[in-house]
Amino acid sequence: MAARERALGLRERQPILVSPGGRVDPRLSECFRRSAFSAKAEGTQVTYAPLYRLFFTFL
């Protein structure tokens, strides 16, 4: 699993969002990995990820 995560460019403790169907949205994963979100402090990311999940579930 760790090798697959590294191959995809995922950082340790990087949040990912999994749909109820068990799929990971690659666009959201890319946002977490490459946007200004990735530069935020780890604690901020931990706090924001569930809020994003709630928002995207609402949409």
Structural class: mainly alpha
Which value, in Å, is the CA radius of gyration? 11 Å
User: What is the count of structural domains?
Assistant: 1
Low-pLDDT parts are none
| Count of strand segments | 0
Largest sheet: none
Please tell me the overall pLDDT: 82
State the helicity in percent bands.
Answer: 55-70%
Content of β-strand? under 5%
Which features would summarize this protein structure in a list?
56% helix; 59 residues; globular; mainly alpha
How is the topology of this model organized?
Layout: H1 2-8, H2 26-34, H3 42-58
Report on this structure.
With 59 residues, the chain is mostly helical. The chain has one domain. The protein has 3 helices and no strands. The longest helix has 17 residues, at 42-58. The protein is globular, with a radius of gyration of 11 Å. The N and C termini lie far apart (30 Å).
Q: What is the gist of this entry?
A:
With 59 residues, the chain is mainly alpha-helical. Helices cover 56% and strands 0% of the residues.
